[in-house]
Structures are given as structure tokens and as C-alpha cells.
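Notes from hallway chat w/ T.B., transcribed later so I don't forget. T.B. wanted the structure written out for a chain they're using in a teaching module, and asked if we could keep both sequence and C-alpha cells in one place. Agreed to drop them here.
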Amino acid sequence: MSEFGYIKEVEQSFRNNNGIFTPTDIYNLDLESKWTNVGELELIETKTVSSTVNTDFTNLGNYSTHFLTISQGLNAGANSYLGIRFSSDGGSTFDSNNNYERANYYGGTIGNGTSNTSSTSIIPITSDTSSDRKSGYVCIYSALDGAQKTYVTAHYQEEEYNAGILSGLYAGANRCNAFRLTTNNGGAFTFKASLYGIRNP
């Protein structure tokens, strides 16, 4: 028997909590960042890109919810925004047909407004202003669940006090195992993006 219950190793893998843990065991494991809790973020991958049109995430792990952070995003030209498209074949192809729905609200120095459509080829996750750096986050729900559609919510903030809240739905294939960050018009983008999975019970 080890220091941390009836297990041979101190490390504990998620969903594999073999043995009996006392409150002291749990406390000590938590101090060493080895106690797994439902709802924690687990880093899958980080990408830093410069003047790139397409950035693909093909490893989604085994999570029902994904959390993507984007920092210091900058588009190369006006009328170009960063968006998301999904794949059901591991990233061999990404659906660019009008199988997406989206709605958004924006406000700031550019004014306030709303926009929505039930038929578009991409879900936007930033605005299309060219001079401001953008940061924000994206939540992706039930992408790997073949019984549900894939839902997206996002929030972004820009340097000049412009901000937006967006939501979207992918109405194509029910199970999506990869996604692509790309632009609406083929323009290049620079950003750092980190993809996390949220641990489930």
C-alpha cells in the first residue's frame, strides 16, 4: 500500500481512481496537482501562427466540451474575420457548405448592432476590423457526440474597446472530430490559440 491509498504509483489517471483515498490522500494529491476533478481544463494543444489562412485542430481527445482561447489575433486586411469550420473525417475535409447557423451582438467605437443567419459557410469568432488586435475564447459543445449537433459560443475583445458575443450551430454531420480556424475570405491571420478539454464525470 502506497502513501496515497491502495495504488502502486502516486500519479492518478482520470476515470481510473483505483484504490481507497483518505481525505489526507486527496489533500496531498491536490497539492501535487495529481488529484483529478470534474470540470478541470486539460490542455490538448497550443498553436502559434503567423500570417496563416488555415489552422487545424485534429486531436479533440475524448471530451464533451472544448474550450479554445485566442490571444493577440490580427487579420491581414479589412473585411476578414476569423471563423470556425468542422470536419467529420478527422480533418481530411472541412465542411465549407452553408450548413452553419450563427447570431452575434457587437458594440463599441464601431457602434452597436446584431446580425444572424440560418445559412452560412462559417461561424465567425472575431470581428472583421483590420487594425485592432483581438483576444477571446470559444466554447464548443457536443462535437464528438453523434446524437447531437455541435454548438459554439464565443466572446472577443479588441484594443479599441470593441467587443462581441457570438453563438453558432453546425447542422451538418452530427459527430465532428476536428475543426479548422480560417477566415471568411481567404485572408491571413496571426494569433496564438490553446485548445482545452473540460473533464467530464
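Follow-up for T.B.: The two ends are 27 Å apart (CA to CA). Might be a good example for the class.
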